Amino acid sequence: MARRRPTPQALITFASAACLTMVLLPSRYSGWLSVFRDPVLALVAPVSGPASAVASMARKGEDRRPAIEPDELRRQRDFYRAEYERALARIQTLEAQVTALQSGVAPLQDYETLLLDAPRIGSDLEGGAILVRQGKRAGVVPDQTVATARQAPQHLVGIVTEAQTAISTVLLANDPRVRVGQHRYIGALVLPEGEVTPEAFAMAARCDLTAAGDGTYVSEEIAANSGVEVGNIVHLSDDNWPVSAQMLVLGHVRQVTPLENPLWVTVVVEPDFDLSRVRHVVLRTSRYGGEEATP
Amino acid sequence: MNWFAFAVLLWVFAGLDVGFRETFQLGHLAIAPAFTPLLAVFIALWAPSAHAAGACLLIGLVADVTRVTPTESGYAVTVVGAYALGYLAACTLVLNFRSILLRRNPLTFVALAVVFMAITEVVEFMFLRVRSRYDELVLLGVGVDLAQRGGSVVLTGLLAIVIGPILTFIAPIVGLDLSHGTRWW
Question: Topology of domain B3-19+32-173, per CATH?
C-alpha cells in the first residue's frame, strides 16, 4: 500500500507549530538554533559584502577627529616613543627581579592581545550591530573580543556578542543595549588632549558613561571641579570590560552640561566617527600568553 | 513556481538586507527599508497558495537568522520563528484578499508592501515582548521600538515603488504567471 504523502497545508501547519515553539523557548533551550546563522550569513556574504562596500562608499561616516598638523604629530610621536622606551626598560628590570625572586617561575601570567583584521560584511540595524568576517575559527571569543576601527586602531567600535565559525556580530559600544558583565555603564577616564604626564594621568577625572541612543554617551553626575572640558579625550577604563579594551578611546567630550546643583555636571561624549559606518575593524581578544586560538 | 529561481532571488534580497539596507538608514535610528518583505509580498500576490505560504515562511526564517537580539549577559541570541510567523500571517492576509485586488496595479504592490511589513513587525514585536518577560532579552523602549519599526515600514513602501516593476519584469523567470491578474485600469 502506498504511503500517504503529507499535504502542503499539513507541512506548513507543522512548520508554524515548530516556529511557535522555537520563538517562545527561553534562550538557554533555543540557543543552539544560532548554528543556522553561520551558514546563512556565509551564503549571503557574496552579495552582502559588495553591497556593504557600496553602502559604505555611498554613505561615508564623518571623521570628527581634530586635524593635527605634521609638527604636532612629530612631537607626539617623539613623546610616545620616549615613553615606550622608558616603559620597556622598566619592564626588563622588573622581569629580571621576578626571575631572580621566583627562581625562574613567573608568578603571574601576562595577557597578550590577539589582533585580527576583519572586514565588515553587513549590519543588523534592529540589533544595533555590524557583522564582520572573522569568527571562532580565528580565535574570536564573545564577550572577550572588542572591535576597533582600522582607520583609528585605538578607537573602540563595539564588543563581540556572538561568534560563529567564520562570522561575528559586533554590538556597537554606543548602542543603549550594550551590557558587559550585566553592567550598562562604561567606566571612563577623561584626559586632556596632547601630552599626558604621569601626574595628569593620576589626577584624571573618572566617570560612568551610558549610551544615550543618539550615537553619543552621557555621563552620570560628576563633580563640576573635576576639570573636564569640551575637547577632552575619553578612554575606556572599566574592569568589567576585557583587558584588550582598556584605555581604548571612546571619543571626545562634546558638551559639559551644568546641573541645578552647581557642584555637579554631566558630560556628553561623542565618538570620533560614526561607529555604524566603520568599513574595516580590528578585533582584539585578550588571552593568556601562549594560549592557542580555539579551533 | 520555479523554486531554484526563488532561492536565487531570496539569496540576493537577503544579501541586500544584510549589506545594503544601511545606505538608506535614517541617522542613528534603526529605520531603513527592507528588501525581503517585498519579495514575500510579490510571491504572496502571484504564486499558488501553498507555494506562497511555504516561500513566505522560508523568507521569514532567513530574516530571523540574519538578526540577533542582545541579552543581559552580554551575548546575543538568534530568535528563530518570530519573523517566520509574521511573514506567514501577512501572507495569509494577502492570500485571502488577493482575488479582489487589482494585482497588476503598481500601487497595490506598494500598499500591500506597507501592510505586509507592518504585520510582520507587529508579530515580531509581540513575540519579543512576550519572550522578554521570562528571558534575558534586552529590548529598546516600547515607544522607540514601535517608532523605528513604523519608520522602516514607511520606507519599505517607498522602496516598493522601485522594486515592484523590477520584480514584475523578472516574474516569468520565477515561473509566476501575471496574466491572470485583474487588469490595473
Answer: Arp2/3 complex 21 kDa subunit ARPC3 (1.10.1760)
